Amino acid sequence: MLVLVAPGQGAQTPGFLTPWLDLPGAEDRLRAWSAAIDLDLVHYGTKADADEIRDTAVAQPLLVAAALLSARQLFPTTADLVPRVGAVAGHSVGELAASALAGVFADDVAMSLVRARGLAMAEAAAVTETGMSALLGGDPETTLAHLDRLGLTPANVNGAGQIVAAGTAEQLAALAEDKPEGVRRVVPLKVAGAFHTHHMAPAVEKLSVAAASVDAADPAVPYVSNRDGGAVATGSEVVARLIGQVANPVRWDLCMETFQERGVTALIELCPGGTLTGIAKRALPGVRTLPLKTPADLDAARELIAGSAPSSHSSVAE
Question: I need a surface site. Which of 69, 151, 161, 219 has the fewest CB within 10 A?
Fold first, then answer.
């Protein structure tokens, strides 16, 4: 079974979209989305520096655009995707790309929602100086207890020995000085807020308003949710979870457990790929993984798709 996943914030790097614009129609698609959401995705994906694309209001639309742009090179429509893909999922903001790929709503709706999400989360993040740091290694229970003592939230439980802590700048500084027993490294992330924590509560309200008029179809392929790793059956529930997830932890570890339970044999991570495939290599031994970094990776992805068993989708949700 093939799983298609979309990365979250922090995966972006300066100029990462430059080679993708050489593909037929790619720049036109990006410019159309740019006009629709009033954000120059072409500039930010090719010429902007690291600080510019760290801005939450920029990074989130840029990442969803990149995921969709790369996915549509492999699967022009959801109907093309259904026979070959056993499940879709996204990490944090990547869930918006996954929702569009599953046919819950159109790509341009995903771009509209992610623009509203990015602006709302940037505004919420500006209230207090907050951030996130990845903890590598260590025992999960020991790490979680340590974070609780420091007042930090385990915003991402990614599995394979990685937990991401979120909180105020002071709390993260304390973590850097006093890391949990067994943790090898504490790595500050390229994000501008304590996402998936109570600090994002105001953004939940604003995204709820933005999503109120969205007409959501039921997923055409199993859509695996960050909330609990469950496969969601209805479009309305997908949208409700997209809204609530802004202020709740990402349980990527549970998503990977679901992939495994459903018999995953291959995993493709959409552009800018690398983070989720790195985790999968450790957590899902024996599963073939392929990150889409540049268009040069597309042929290998097509070969992987062709070699994967057709998907029946006899049970979209469990």
Answer: 151
| pLDDT tens-place string over residues 257-271 | 999 999 999 999 999
Which CATH topology does 2-125+198-307 take? Answer: Malonyl-Coenzyme A Acyl Carrier Protein; domain 2 (3.40.366)
- For 130-188, CATH gives 3.30.70.250
**Mean pLDDT on 49-63:** 96
**Burial tier of 212 (Cβ tally within 10 Å: 0-12, 13-18, 19+):** exposed
Active site residue 198: no
SS3 273: coil
pTM of the predicted protein model: 0.93
CA–CA distance, 277 with 83 (Å, rounded to integer): 23
196 is catalytic: yes
> Annotated catalytic residue: which of 34, 70, 91, 92?
92
Which residue in 91, 146, 196, 199 is the catalytic one? 196
Rounded to whole angstroms, the Cα distance separating 112 from 260 reads: 32
